[in-house]
Amino acid sequence: MPETPVSPGPATTSPASSASTPPKVLAVIPARGGSKGVPGKNLASVAGVPLVVRAVLACRSARLVTDVVVSTDDPAIAAAARSSGADVVLRPAGISGDTASSEAAVLHTLDAHPDTDVVLLVQCTSPFLTREDIDGVAAAVVEDGAETAVTVTPFHGFLWRESIEDGVGGGQGMGHDKAFRPRRQDRPQDFLETGAAYAMDAEGFRTHQHRFFGRTALVRTDPARVLEIDEPHDLERARALAPVLDRLPTPTRDDVDAVVLDFDGTQTDDKVLIDSEGRELVAVHRGDGLGIAALRRAGLKLLVLSTEQNPVVAARARKLQIPVLHGIDRKDLALKQWCEENGIDPARVLYAGNDVNDLPCFALAGWPVAVGSAHDSVRAAARAVTRTPGGEGAIREIAAWLLGPELNHTPQPHHTPA
C-alpha cells in the first residue's frame, strides 16, 4: 500500500479537487511497438498476461482513474489494449521512434481528451504496479494539492561513478565522501524513483510539458515490487517473481451486482469419484458454501452455470439455495439471457471459471475470474485470479474480495453425493 506522500507540505486545494463534479483523471500508458532491448517488450507475458494488459487492468481497478488510454503505434498492442478495456490513441510516427519521450505521447493523448483535470503516466514496463500505487499518485494531486507526484521506494545504497584521474580509471563517490561512510541511521533518507507511475495537474503539464513541476509529492511503494523491464534478464526475473508477487486487481462490492459460478473445476477440484453403480461423488469446500451464503445475504444475485447435465450440480445448488442452469451448450448465451431477465448489466457480473469452455462467458462478464488451478489460457484471459485452487476455497476467497477479509477462514471440505 502506498503511504502518505513523504513531504506533502501544507494542504491546499487543487483546481481538480475544488470542482463541483468529480475530476477527470486520465491514465495514459505509452506502449510503442519498437523495442531494441527486449523486442516486442510491451506484449511480452508475465504470468500469462501481456505487460500492456497488466498495466491496463491495474489502472482500470484504481479508485480515482476515470479513463484509461494506451498510446501506441502498433496494431497488436492496440488490439490487446482494447480487449482489456482500454481506449487507444494511435501515435504518429514522429513521436514513435527510439528518441521520442513519454511526455510527447502523453501530450498527444491529451489533445484527444481536452477536458482532463489530472493526467497519469503509467509505465507498463513495471509489471508489479498495483492499483494502490496508481491511486497514491492520483490522490496526491486530486486530493492533497500537489502539482505532480511520483512513485518512489526508500533507498539506502551508496552511489559510485567511474572517473578518470591522471589517465587512470577509478571510482568516485556520488553524494558521499568515500573516506567517510556514515551509518544508515545517520544519513538522510533517500528515495529511488521507481519509473512506474506519475501524476500531473493537466493544465500545468500542458504548460511545462514535463512530468515534474511545482510541488512534487513522493508516494512510497513496496521495494519488493520495484522492477523495470529494460533488458531480457529483467523479463526473466519478472516471470520468476510473478508467482510470489502477483496480485492482479480484485473487485469490491461496489463493482459487482451478480456472481455467476461454473461448477466442475471451480467449486470442485475437477475430479469425479464413480461408485460401482455409476453414481458420482465430487469434493466441495465448506468455506465456499459459507462464502456463497454471505454473498446471498449481501444482496448479490447468484447463479450456478454448468455445461454438465449432472444431478450433483443440481444437488449442490439446492444446498446453497441458489438457482442453477446446467446441461448448457452455449454458456455465454445462457448468461446473456439470464442477465436480461434479471435486469443485470453484464459489465457488473463476476463470472468464475476454470477451463476453456468458460472463455465465451469471460468475454461477456465485466469481471472474469479464474480460480488458481485454471487452464493457462483462462488465467491469461481473466481480470483477476484467485490464489486458491478450485474446490479448495476459491469461492470463499472471491467472497472475501467483495465483502471483507473476515471471510478468509477456510474450513475443511466435505463430500456431496449425486
Mean pLDDT, to the nearest integer, reads: 86
Shape summary: elongated
Please, what is the oligomeric state? Answer: single chain
N- to C-terminal distance: 45 Å
Strand fraction band? 15-25%
Low-confidence stretches: 1-19, 409-413
Q: What helical percentage do the residues reach?
A: 25-40%
Radius of gyration, rounded? Answer: 25 Å
Query: Main sheet: which strands, in order across?
Result: 5-4-1-6-10-7-11
Q: How would a crystallographer describe the biggest sheet?
A: 7 strands, mixed
Number of helices: 13
The helix-and-strand class reads: alpha/beta
The number of strands is 20
Give keywords.
418 residues, 7-stranded mixed sheet, 30% helix, disordered N terminus, 24% strand, alpha/beta, 6-stranded parallel sheet
Describe this structure in words.
The chain has 418 residues and is of the alpha/beta class. A seven-stranded mixed β-sheet has the order 5-4-1-6-10-7-11, sandwiched between helices. It is elongated and about 90 Å long. Mean pLDDT is 86; it is low at 1-19 and 409-413. 30% of the residues lie in helices and 24% in strands. α8 (286-297) packs parallel to α13 (394-403). α9 (311-320) links the parallel β15 and β16. The chain starts with 14 loop residues before the first helix and ends with a strand. It is built from 13 helices and 20 strands. It has helices at residues 15-18, 51-61, 75-83, 102-112, 131-142, 202-208, 232-245, 286-297, 311-320, 331-342, 359-364, 376-381, 394-403, and strands at residues 25-30, 45-46, 49-50, 67-72, 87-90, 118-122, 148-155, 159-165, 168-174, 190-201, 216-220, 258-261, 273-274, 280-285, 301-306, 324-326, 349-353, 367-370, 384-385, 413-417.
